[in-house]
Amino acid sequence: MGGPYSVALFVFHVLCVLLTLSEAGSQNTMACAPWCPANSSCASGTTCRCTPGFNSSSGEIFTDPLESCDDINECGPPMTVSCGKLADCQNTEGGYHCMCSPGYELISGATMFQNESENTCQDVDECQQKPKVCKGRSICINTQGNYICQCPPGLELNLKDPRLCIDMDECSSGQHQCHNSTICLNTVGSYTCHCRRGWVPKPGFQDKQMGTISCEEISFPTWTAPPEIKSQSLSGFFERVQKMSIDFKSALTQETIQYLIMSVDDLLKTPGDLEALDLSSRHHTATYLFSGLEQILRTLAKAMSGGSFIYHSPGDTELSLMVQEQGSGNITVGQSHARMLLDWAVAAGAEKSGPTVVGLLSSPNMQKLLANASLDLDLEKQTELEEIYESPVRGAQLRLLSAVNLVFLSNTNTDKLNSKVTFAFSHPWEMPGTRQELICAFWKSDSNRRGYWATSGCQTLGSRNGSTTCQCNHLSSFAILMAHYDVEDWKLALITKVGLALSLVCLLLCILTFLLVRPIQGSRTTVHLHLCICLFVGSTVFLTGIENEGGQIGLRCRLVAGLLHYCFLAAFCWMSLEGVELYFLVVRVFQGQGLRKRWLCLIGYGVPLFIVAVSAAIKSQGYGRPQYCWLDHANGFLWSFLGPVTFITLCNAVIFVITLWKLTQKFSEINPDIKKLKKARVLTITAIAQLFVLGCTWVFGLFLFDQRSWVLCYIFSILNCLQGLFLFVLYCLLNKKVREEYRRWACMVTRNKYSEFATSTSGSGSSQSQTRALRPSESGM
């Protein structure tokens, strides 16, 4: 060093040293000079010592005021500190500490330690941490000190974020196993193999392990006539179906559907011998048509090229189809007869291959086959009606108002749907009357394919302006019915049963009287006898068998209806024969004695037998109704009874008018036979009274089978009660000869009782003599 500056600096150091020595000498505890640098302390009066963890270039102790104490890196050479396995040394200012390597942690949960003996580092399971380290659908896999994110099949890692999985498009990348006859459709995380439009999965060619299918072109489903139904019309229809099957081409699917619907219309509009089938066979045919049409329309719809199709046939049958590969949300399908709202998920169901089909076929012509079908009321509805009417409800008389609507979907498992389907059915507006209700019903068949209407699972929401809205949790064939409930009136039933029982007793007394009273024997008594026999048999059958329990029209119900038809016709025929007898008595009184007994029986029993035989041969299914075993009102079959009854009543009325006119003329003659004329007048008036009572009874009786007329039902029941009683009074109690015979019988009974009493009270000897004395009088009686 040189110059004035160096000299001055030297002098300054010397002065500082002298001053330090001076202070040290005077004060032993005084610190060293203040020039010791940071991270150091005074070692002696002239030296400084670096604090632990620091060191100078001259060593731990130094005297040079220009020295500095620097941090010692214990984690680096040459002092490398060992923290043990799975740990790293971390240098700090003036020291160090050990920390577990990334992915590891101390058992105690602390973050650092000082030496290897304190090392308890173990692996951290990052997959259990929250929030999750792997995002989305990626799968976390723990490793020693780390983790990895893997993707499930069908997904791959995102290059921008390796913790996130994204969909892999197997269809575009060629990483799929779909057959060359199918179309690959990518889905999130996977793919599906679909048949091309107009193709269907080939039976037996499905790889369940790979989830792939093999497809073939759609063919017309097999549909043959039901073997148990014998009908030329039905056979002709299925011959047309077989021709459609042979000529079918998927490119002409819409034309095939149209031709099929027109063929169904031709079958139903001109049913021919279908109407001659019994009720069970007609309903079985309807069920068979429903199931076949559903299967064929569902199959053909999958071959259509367009997304929707609407067809209105010349026969007023309408078809609405909606076909879509994938769908979501609600869909509305419909036409003028009906509309339907449902969820696409319901339509697809578990169907994974092919398009989803929603179809609605509305046929007004189907009503003919479903006529006179019964209604099965579920327990909830039955309870509700009985609470309303406060009487048991045995069933309902039905009338179809709307078209019959067949619903079909790709989903074939429609017995219990996850979400309800809403319908709006159009029909002629009609205000329900007393005990009537508009109901939404569906067609149901039992194990024997016998069909009937049911309401379970369906709810009628409301009706307005000729449209009724319903909701159902299942699908079938639906219609709007006007139901007239058959409410059992216990008072009317009691009057009917008690009245008929009384009538039967009186008729039996009449029959015994006509058989046993000899003074009144004659042709008129023969007529009266057989009239009472017919009424007695008819009333007995009516009382025991008129009600059709179960609603099914079987052989028993048809036999009961036929017997009632025959017995009551025979009663009217015998009543007409009485008019003929009066005609011979009054008009031709001097020209003969009337018809012989064999001719009376031939006419009285033969004419009604002929009428019943012809009626049964023409339309045997006209015998029996769902509620009562009587003649069916449909197609005028009831006139097989009303016609002859009306004709007989009118003829008798004409005969009685002529008879009265002739009687008036004979009374005005110069020498009339007053005794004969009075007798003829009494007989004529009696016959007219009989005609009036029996005729009025059956005029009101015609309305007994229409429960809407309660007043007429009560009138009929009362007149029916009086019918046998009236005949007994008219022909027995008002007849002088019969009364005398009754008195004689009464006296015989009284004397016999007196004789028995006398015998029991007198002694044995006198008793025997009295008995012997009474025997001659008894024999004379």
Give structural notes.
This is Adhesion G protein-coupled receptor E5. Belongs to the G-protein coupled receptor 2 family. LN-TM7 subfamily. Keywords: Calcium, Cell adhesion, Cell membrane, Disulfide bond, EGF-like domain, G-protein coupled receptor, Glycoprotein, Membrane, Phosphoprotein, Receptor, Repeat, Secreted, Signal, Transducer, Transmembrane, Transmembrane helix. One of its GO terms (cellular component) is plasma membrane. Residues 71-110, 123-166, 167-206 form the EGF-like domain. With 781 residues, the protein is α+β, with helices and mostly antiparallel strands. The chain folds into 4 domains: 40-71, no CATH class; 182-217, no CATH class; 232-487, Chondroitinase Ac, Chain A, domain 3, CATH 2.60.220.50; 503-741, Up-down Bundle (Rhopdopsin 7-helix transmembrane proteins). The chain is 42% helix and 21% strand. It is built from 16 helices and 31 strands. The strands form 10 sheets. Strands 18, 19, 22, 23, 24, 25, 27, 28 and 31 form a 9-stranded mixed beta sheet that branches. A hairpin with a 2-residue loop joins strand 10 (139-143) and strand 11 (146-150). Helix 10 packs antiparallel against helix 11 (597-618) and helix 15 runs antiparallel to helix 16. The longest helix has 32 residues, at 555-586. It starts with a helix and ends with a helix. Mean pLDDT is 79; it is low at 21-31 and 763-781.
Comma- or semicolon-separated keywords:
Chondroitinase Ac, Chain A, domain 3, 4 domains, nine-stranded mixed beta sheet, five-stranded antiparallel beta sheet
